[in-house]
Design goal:
Blueprint: E1 2-8, E2 11-17, E3 28-30, H1 35-46, E4 49-52, H2 55-64, E5 72-74, H3 75-84, H4 92-95, H5 119-128, H6 135-147, H7 152-175, E6 177-178, H8 181-192, H9 203-215, H10 226-235, H11 245-248, H12 256-272, H13 274-280, E7 281-282, E8 285-286, E9 289-291, E10 301-303, E11 324-331, H14 334-342, H15 346-351, H16 356-362, H17 369-381, H18 386-398, H19 400-414, H20 432-439, H21 445-487, E12 499-503, E13 507-513, H22 517-536, E14 545-550
Parallel strand pairs: 1-4, 4-5
Antiparallel strand pairs: 1-2, 2-3, 6-8, 7-8, 9-10, 11-13, 11-14, 12-13
Helix pairs in contact: 1-2, 2-7, 3-6, 3-7, 7-21, 9-12, 12-13, 14-21, 16-17, 17-18, 18-19, 19-21, 20-21, 21-22
The protein binds a DNA duplex (12 and 16 nucleotides) through residues 224-228, 242-246, 263, 267, 270-272, 294-297, 299-313, 330, 334-335, 370, 374, 377-378, 380-389, 460-461, 463-465, 467-468, 504-507.
DNA sequence: TACCCCAGCGCG
DNA sequence: AAAGCGCGCTGGGGTA
């Protein structure tokens, strides 16, 4: 059973469809304020798969009302996959001109739970000259595209995982990441000094500035402006090429050490200092917007507060509630394992029985673990120079099947072709500018070099796309399985029991009552093993998970 | 004032 | 031990 929800000028309309997508009864009109209660009843009666345009527009108010959703079809997320996938290339959906399902309506125009819920959306559409999109029609169009595709099963798994991710994203924002502002502030004070007033430098930065001036015989220096900093260094006879820490580290001069420290502390203050804390941590929770499918590869993005770049430095401020714990889990060496699974390289799978890098050393392909790691990174990113590039051929010799797969993806991208992940998410086409550059390749030597460079660059993107994208699919399946299993542990609202509070590409955090932490760890591991089987079938590729139970995120290494 | 781009750096 | 992939954010500095 499906229940498709739509907002109309008259209110919310619910369409019940049977498993064949045919109307099961007359559409039902629901008042906005009754939605959560109505959905709760519907869950009890038929446990449907909910179908709607965008989980971000429906699910928050259900969660507010204490209602959880087991599964859904997020039409917006699904549409963008089906639009590009080579598996659905001939479908009506893919052939149609771009429409409202291809645009991403800004969140602030989405209906809010309290104020008049549909008006802003209609205003937006009216202003933009867009017809109000019909979710039932779109759902049927998507079903048609999937049914006619060359591999409906893979696509169905992908879309289910993507939609589940959409639910998780809303749930994580709803629950929030527990954040202890006092600990954070204490950390800032101890490294930077007391919070400065009206834009002054904190004491620690001021002291470092004094130190730098002394090292420059009293000359002025402004480390906050890269351009001025470079000038100041050159005035002092320091041959700096850039002001990047990585480059500065190579220079021997007394000003360098305080400068590097300054940069580090200054970064802490601007990115995650007092202002960040005021802006992003409310009532002990950090609630960024997560953006499923935010990257072309299917990885999530995030906006607000830099959720996907929380420095290790401040993770100690992520503290579980009293009587609760965090289970912090990450998939070890995920991308190289994905590489071995999708290429069905049994030799590499065998090497991944334990630590994958050690396993590769054991085959004799390379000499050390560090070399194995570097070589694999090179294979997945397309390194051509440096040690990584140098080691690549050795890997190709030892694991021809795996390397041939990424090489083929790179060649396809260089020709401007599309590549796809294991479950059928396809890469975008290179830009028209890229095409123009290729078309102009035969004009002269400079054009040819330019075309070649852009071609190679897009090849590195497609090479990485298939691995990063398939890893993202694995992570989504992992999370979807995890979410379902956690739900069985307790009754009640989302935040009454173990629930996901953070996700970072190959890592999750579950906030859980302490007494359930061991159960959660077991669930996290099983969910990972299941994800591997769902995507790769019986292939003997392991996806081991490192899981620790901690009181704060900083303690998770 | 508003906006855009760049350099730099945090994360995987 | 290095420059190859994917992101978001800040502050500086320029332009309109």
């Amino acid at each position: 059973m499906y229940v498709v929800l739509a907002r109309t000028p008259d209110g919310i309309v619910a369409h019940r469809l049977d498993d064949n997508g045919r109307p099961a009864d007359e559409p039902e009109l629901i008042d906005e304020e009754d939605l959560a209660d109505w959905a709760d009843l519907e869950n009890d009666e038929s446990n449907p798969r909910w179908v709607w345009d965008d989980s971000r527009k429906w699910y928050p108010q259900l969660l507010e009302g204490g209602v959880r959703i087991a599964r859904c079809v997020d039409l917006r997320l699904s549409h963008s996959i089906l639009r590009l996938s080579t598996l659905t290339a001939g479908s009506r959906l893919a052939m149609a001109p771009k429409g409202p399902w291809d645009s991403n309506i800004p969140l602030d125009l989405a209906p809010q739970p309290v104020a008049d819920p549909h008006e802003s959306l209609f205003d937006f559409h009216e202003a933009a000259g867009i017809d109000e999109p019909d979710p039932v029609a779109e759902f049927l169009l998507q079903r048609e595209a999937i049914a006619q595709s060359s591999d409906p099963n893979r696509l169905n798994l992908l879309l289910a995982a993507e939609s589940a991710g959409g639910l998780v994203a809303v749930e994580m924002k709803h629950g929030g990441l527990p954040w202890d502002a006092d600990i954070h502030r204490a950390m800032l004070t101890s490294t930077l000094g007391p919070r400065p007033v009206n834009g002054e430098r904190p004491a620690a930065l001021e002291a470092l500035l004094v130190e730098m001036r002394a090292a420059l015989d009293g000359a002025e220096i402004n480390p906050d402006s890269p351009a001025e900093l470079l000038k100041a260094l050159r005035r002092a006879g320091i041959p700096a090429e850039s002001t990047r820490s990585w480059d500065l580290r190579e220079i021997k001069h007394p000003v360098i050490e305080p400068l590097l420290t300054y940069k580090k502390l200054s970064r802490l203050m601007t990115a995650n200092g007092w202002h960040w804390l005021d802006t992003w941590v409310v009532d002990g929770r950090f609630r960024p917007d997560y953006v499923p499918g935010g990257a072309a590869t299917g990885r999530w993005g995030a906006s607000g507060g830099g959720a996907l770049q929380l420095p290790k430095q401040i993770r100690g401020a992520v503290v579980a509630d009293e009587g609760w714990k965090f289970v912090v889990a990450d998939a070890s060496q995920l991308e190289p394992r994905i590489l071995s699974a999708m290429s069905a390289d049994r030799r590499m799978a065998e090497a991944g029985r334990g630590d994958l890098y050690e396993g590769i050393v054991a085959t004799g392909a390379v000499a050390t673990r560090a070399e194995a790691k570097l070589a694999l990174l090179g294979a997945m990113y397309g390194a051509t120079t440096g040690e990584s590039g140098r080691l690549m051929p050795r890997l190709a010799q030892g694991f021809p099947q795996a390397i041939a797969m990424v090489e083929a993806a790179a060649r396809a991208g260089e020709r401007g072709e599309v590549v796809s992940t294991q479950l059928g998410r396809s890469s975008p086409l290179p830009s028209s500018q890229w095409q123009d550059i290729q078309a102009a390749a035969n004009l002269d030597a400079a054009s040819e070099a330019r075309a070649r460079s852009h071609s190679r660059s897009w090849g590195r993107f497609t090479r990485n796309f298939i691995v990063q994208g398939t890893a993202a699919e694995w992570a989504l399946c992992w999370m979807a399985n995890l979410r379902n299993a956690l739900w069985t542990l307790t009754d009640g609202a989302l935040t009454d029991g173990p629930h996901l509070v953070f996700f970072l590409h190959d890592e999750v955090i579950v906030h859980t009552p302490a007494e359930l932490a061991d159960d959660v760890v077991a669930i996290v591991r099983k969910a990972a093993a299941d994800a591997g089987r769902q995507i790769f079938g019986a292939l003997p590729v392991d996806f081991p998970v490192t899981a620790v139970t901690v009181d704060n995120y900083g303690a998770a290494k």
